Every structure is written in C-alpha cells, then in structure tokens.
C-alpha cells in the first residue's frame, strides 16, 4: 500500500514533468495557456487537472488550489522532502513549493513575507494554512527549545478552531473569525515564535444560528466529550438538546465532526499552551455559563416586565461566574439610565431582557475568545530581542453569500473586497516594477478594479460604514429602517448599490423592504438590514415552529404584544429569538450596569475581560464596523510592508463531494477571485519570463554555440540561442536579467524541441559517459599496473642493492681474508679460512686415494690445514689398510706373508724386485705328473714342496742345461728327466747369492770338503723371487740369501773357484766371457 502510494506520488511528478503529457494533465502554469483570455480554456485546464487529482496550478507564482474533498497522498513527509529547497518551477505545483519558496526568499533577502490565502467559505483556506504551518514545522531547522514553540504553534490551531470555528452551510469547519498569524524566523531560519491577530469573531453565532448551522464547536465538544465530573461541576448535562443556544439549528450532531475526539485534542492542546488548571476551570466555567445563560427564561409580570424567579439556570451562571445571584438578576432585568444627576433603574420587557441576556452571552464569549488569543500569543511569543523575519499567514473568512445575509456577511465581504484591492495593487505594482527593473516598456492591462466598491463601503462621511455609524450615534430614535433610508439618500446613484425602493420592477421582486444589495466584485449580495424577533414553539422532538416578525420601525423592543399572545398560549415551550439588525449589531450594546456586574466576577478570566474596558468613559465606544474597518486598515498596512504570496482556494462543488467539479460554481469563483484578471496582468505583455541563467541552463543543448557550455555572459548566450531557434523579434524581449517571451506557443515549441533533443542528448551523454567511464577504468587500471610495477621494481631494486651490498661486503671480506690467510685467525680472515677449510675438505672428500698403494694422489692442503691434512692422510690410510686387511682371503694372506718375506730379502736390493711384487706366487711351477716317476719315487718321502724349471750352467764351460729344481722338506734336487743330477741338503747349503741387477741368476753356495762332491750350483730361473722365498721358508734360509753387488765367486770344486760377472745392457744374455767368467747381461729396469 505504502509502495503504491509512493509510486503514485512519483507518478505525478513524472506525469507533470513531461510536457508531452500536456494534453492529459493540462498545463501547470496558466501563464502558459495559449488562449489566456478564454475563461473556458482556463476552466478546461483546471478540470483536466482536477480529474487527475492535480489540485494545484500556478498563475506565475500564485497558487490556485481546488478543494478535492478527499484525502490525497501529497502531504507526506516524503513529499515535503521532495519540495525542500527546490526551484519553484522544477516540480509540479504544490502548496509546499510555495511555502518553501517564500521561506527561501525570506532567508535570501532577509525581508518579511506573507501568504494570502483567499477563497470562499469551505474552499480550503484553513487547510492550506495548516499545510503551510506543518511544512515549516517539519522543514525548518530545529532545536529542542524551539520544538516547544513549534508545538504550541501547531496545537494552537485546534484550540482556536474549537472556539472560533463552526459548522455553516458552506463548511463543516468554517472559521468564524479572521486569522493572521506571523511565524517568526531567526537568522538561521529556525521558527522561533509566533503571533496571532484575530479579526471580528462572529459573536452572533453564540446566540443564534441559521437553519442547518451550528454554534461554535467548543460547546458541543464540552457537552459531548466532557468528563462526568467536569459536567457535574459545571451543572451541565451530557445532552445538547438541553441547551437552547445549541438546538436552534436542529443539527447538533454532524457526521463529519467527532466532538468527543476533538474534545480530547483540545484538552490536550490547552496543557501544551501553558494553561494551568485554574485557567482551564475558569475557561470551561465561562462556556458552561453561556449555555446556562441561554436557558435563562424570563417571565412577564403584570406590567409586562421581565422577571426571574428562582431560576436554577441563573443560579448556575451566578456560581460559575462567581457573581451574586441578586446582582446578576438585576443586571439582566434592569437597565440603569443616567439622567443628568441621578441614576434611574428602568425595567426590561421580556424581549428586551432576552436581548440583554444574549448581548451578555455574546460579550462574554467574544471577550473570552480575545483573551484566549492573547493567552496563546503569550505562549508562542519569542522574547529574544534579536532580529527576526516573518512569514505571515492570512486565513481570513472568505466571501460569503447566504440566503439571509446580515451585518457579519457585510463585514466579511467588505474584508474580501479589501483583500482583493490589496491583491490588485500588489500584483500590478510588482508586475510594473518588474518591467521597470528589467527595462521593458509597460503595456497597460484592462481589469476590473474593485476600488469603487471599497470606497462605497468605507469612504469617510460617504461610505456605508460612515452612514451606519452616524445612524447609531445620532441622538433620537434610529432604527434599521432609518439607516436604510439614509443609505438610499446617499448611495442612490451608485452603480453597485441597490434597494427595494431604488430598483426597477423586475429586481424589486427579489428584494425585501429591509434589504439592500451590493454588487461586490465577487457577485451580488443582498443584506438584510433589519432585525427580527422570532417567536417559536418548541414541540416535542425538538422541532421549532418559527414566526418571524420584523422589529417595528419605531422601536426595537415593543413587540411584546405578539409575545404575550404566545406566552399565554397552551404550547409547552415558547422560544423567543431576537435577531438584531445592522444598528444593534454595529452598536454591540452591552448596558453599562451589566458590565459593572461582570467586573465583580470571581472568575479571573471574566474579570480580566471586563476590567480593561471603557469603564467610566462616557464616550460611546467605537462601533463594530469602525473597529473592523480600522483593524482592516491595520492589516493592510501590515501586509503592504511585506512581500506577497497568494493561494487562491476554489470550491469544486457545493455538496462537499469528492471528485465532483461543478463548472458553474468554479467558473463563478474564478471570475470573482479575479483569476482571469490576474492572469491577464501576468500575461499583459509576456507570458513567460525567466532569468537568463536558468533559461540558458535548460535550453542550451538546442544550439551548438551554447552546448555544452556558454563561456560568455548568460544574456548573450540566450540571444544566440533564441536566434538559432528562430524567435521572431516581437516574440521576445531581453530584459536586464530575464528573457521575456510573449506567447506560450513559442516556449512550448522550444520545450518540445528540448524534449526531442533530450533523448538524443541522453543517449549521446550516455555513450560519452560510458566511453569516459571505460577510459577512466582503463586509465585507472594502467595507473594501477604502473604503480604495482614501480613498487615491484623498487622492491627488486632494493633487494638487488642489498644483495650487492652484501656481495661487496662478502667479497671484500673474502679478499681481506685471502690477503691475511697466512696470518693467525682474526675476524678479518676467519670466514675466509673457514671457507678455505670447507672448500679443501669438500674437495678432499671427492678426491681421496682409492687404494692403499696410491701414495701420491693426496690433495695439497692449504697452509692452515697442513697439520690436519697429514693426520687425515694417515687416518685415511689406516682406514684403507684396515678395510683392505679385512677384505683379504687366507690364500692371499699366505701369499702376502710370502711376499713380505720376499720384501725383507730383496726390497731395495735387487733391481727386478719391484716388477716382481705384482706377480703372484704360485704353489708350484711343475705339477707332479711332469716329474719323472723314478725321481718321484726317490724323493717322495721327503715331500715335495715346490718345483720349477731352471737352467743350470755347467761349472766348467758354463753350458746351459734345462733342469727341474724340486724343493722338498729337507733338500733341493736338480733333476734331469729320470736322474737326480744333484742333491743339496739344506744343511749343506752355506748361502745363496744373487746380483743386484735385474738378471735371474741364482748361485747356491754348498759346503763341501770332499772333492768328489760337486761344487756350487749356478742356475737361472725366471721365477727367482718365488724360488728363493719358497726356499727361505722351506729351508729356513732367509738370512742365507744375499744380494751381492758386483761379481760373485763360486766354487767349481773344492779349492777351485769360478766367477760370475754381471752387467746391464740392451739385451739380456748369458755367455762365457773371454776371461773365463760367466757374463750375465740384463736389461736395465726403469724403476731404478
Ligand atoms: N487540500 C485538501 N485536501 C483534502 N480536503 C480538503 C483540502 N482542503 C480542504 N479540504 C476539505 O474542505 C473542508 C473545508 O476546508 P477549510 O480549509 O476549512 O475551508 P475554509 O477555511 O476555506 O473555509 C475541509 O474540512 C476538508 O474536508
Ligand atoms: Mg477556514
């Protein structure tokens, strides 16, 4: 629901915003109406808008409002927000736009303003003023302190409405007083205070209401809504039918009015506006006393004078007002006449008494109302002396025409004439001033000026008011009829004045003898000048039969004859109703003695109300009409000094029906409110005007020279623009600050072009914007990338720098370490040395000698590690040896042991030894099969240990002979086939000799004493080291083996010696030398 409503409001904005919708919703400013002189076109536009619930339309800055008689969703907080601070013409017309514009102009120009709300009764003036007040309450800045002022301003409304409004035929809540309220703003724009001026309360309503109308709301509210206690205290009963002031109209209850609820609102409001309990008590005491007063019945005594005996109503009045009953009774039945020296008490007739009673009721009520306004003013008053600006709100009774119109209507309609006059003056004035300010020639406008009617009413000595006053004040019997005669005398020829006597036959039919008719600017109104006394018969069920009797021309209160006729009648209840005429109402007479009585009241409000009055002055008080006239003059002065804003309220129909638009009724109002005239004035020369800046701002897309920017003076831009648009010279004028356009169609053409252009523009702007966004996005991304890159590069560079710095340091240290590497460990070289050490050890690890035999490939250590290297080398060797040793077999071990023996014997002694080391030894070189059987049989028992083929050299002649050498446990045998050639007992073996060279000659030295025995043995064996090692082991002859330097001698036989010489040569050979020696040549070995 809420959403729907909001949508509706938005919809309205859209609808109005688009000029293409012009046909449907009409135009929102009448100055743009092409046929501006046509009333029909004007009404057509109003009606079109009204049917779309667009109740507001502008005529320039004037707001026309048509009463919709239904709640519209256009007064929400949201709507207020929309209108706050927005240019007047940018949004659909609204009362908020006007209020906001007035407020902002006031703030900007620091001057005073007023909003004149006019329109006939029931057109929506009071509602409009409330809307404005609410708008200010919400939109103005605020503090808690100010909030209370604001609250008071807001709640003062229901209180004043309760006491000052009533149901009339025109309006269920008709304001029966004029109200002008100043809202005061401080420099910040806060609403800081308020002040109310009230105008002419329609007091006669207290005692008399027309058929179908009611008394003031407060009476019904109190009777219907008042708490039981309170009513009891006031002597009231909760039934309006009991009070004759409330039932004359027979419509105490109205459906649109909820008196009980309103009572609560009022009660609540009273406490907000500083009313204390005694004030409230006194106030309601007064209301109740008025009701009681209305019920006071007089009886006629034998002479026809009014009497009041044991009247309970009177007692209540006396109690509530705190006045002695007797005194009160006297005041109501006698009049004090002051003759030259003494006072005479003159008794009233019943009619006269009723008149006096009513006069008292009206006086009490009227003065209390004034007191109330003052009281409210006190509570809203801002006592700060600081400078303030004000916005005045004038909600004054609208033009009224009833079936019977009396003095009140005369005053009200006079007031409306005055306001219309003011309006004409101000509008024309401001229009003229604007033309002047803009330097544009003024073109005079034809319009109806109602000054002639104002003069008719108010002119000194000649106006109706003057005549009336004269008649009231002159000595002698003045009556309503004499007044009418005087009028006819003076105004007889005035075109706006007519009476029964002055009129022609046709018109005469529509006029009574006691009437006069004025042709107001708003229409004709017939005023009934004479008073009436109505004698009615109250039947059961509250129906009153009325018999209207005009008061006699000669005396107002001599009609008791009719009365007495009725009082003696058998009807249950007689009502006497005295309706005063112009003279009485203007005099508003309250006899002095009753005023004196009131001054004795114990009710503080009553006492206050009557204390200040013209107590002893003998001068007659100012008449009501004069008072009213001067207060209107005062009001005119107040308004003239301020800037005006206008709200014109129209009634859409007489029956208060929603959605009904009564053409005739509206047409009439449009006419008399002078809306056509106003429009004519506004349109006199030019329909439309706008400040250059604003005009250019809106329409600049229509011309390439002004789009998108005009760099020069706005006025020149506008000139260029309108030239481009093809405005003709008489279609527009250039003022000082504004362009003036004569015809709306020119503007509409421009506006339509703008509408078309807007769409194109929108897509272009969209495209541009998209491009712009895209570019922006791209640029942003690029910037971001660059930024990241820069940052990253920075980071990299810083890292690189750090690394370099670190490297420099390391290198420096390295170099320094290198330079001082030989020195003892210092901080400078410690790292370098550690590096060297680590480096060396790492390298060493990969380059260790692989075998035990490798004695050379050990890495040369740096100086710092010499010692460690040596230790490591040893350790490594030991590890390798251990590993090797662990890895060898028993056979290898035996072999090694043998080789060890060989080494002991030959190492570094015989040249061929090194080559032999790697030659493994074998068990034997000749297997037993290859040894002759005979030999085997001979020596087997000695156990053969080793056999090897050898070459034996004959001791004489040195002939080489191949032989087998067999070693047994005990002896070595030289065997030739089957023969043992020589047996050498190990015991006889003295020694064994070999040369140092690389030959393979072995010489066995054998001990022999016997010549027969063979001599020493010379043999050559390829396996020299193996043979000799085996021999040394088998025979245990290690020490017997000698490596001999040079030649070796041997015994050929006992006593005969042979010699073997050794040498080295190219080729190894063995031969007998010339000297008889055996010559052994061997090749030189490389190792040596
Ligand atoms: N703007 C409005 N929206 C709805 N109803 C309105 C509006 N203005 C007036 N009315 C109705 O018309 C009635 C009479 O309005 P009111 O302001 O009292 O008239 P005025 O003060 O001109 O005599 C109100 O009680 C209300 O029902
Ligand atoms: Mg009103």
Structure description:
- By secondary structure, the chain is of the alpha+beta class.
- Helices cover 47% and strands 18% of the residues.
- Strands 26-25-24-23-29-28-27-30 form an 8-stranded mixed sheet, sandwiched between helices. The protein has a 7-stranded mixed sheet with strand order 1-2-19-3-12-6-7, with helices on both faces. The protein has a 4-stranded mixed sheet with strand order 31-32-34-33, with no helix packed on it.
- A hairpin with a 2-residue loop joins strand 31 (1048-1053) and strand 32.
- Helix 17 (407-438) packs parallel to helix 26 (624-640), helix 29 (692-699) crosses helix 30 (714-725) and helix 31 packs across helix 32 (827-846).
- The structure holds adenosine-5'-diphosphate and magnesium ion.
- Adenosine-5'-diphosphate is lined by residues 67-72, 119, 121-127, 171, 173-175, 398, 649.
- Residues 67-72, 119, 121-127, 171, 173-175, 398, 649 line the site of adenosine-5'-diphosphate (ADP).
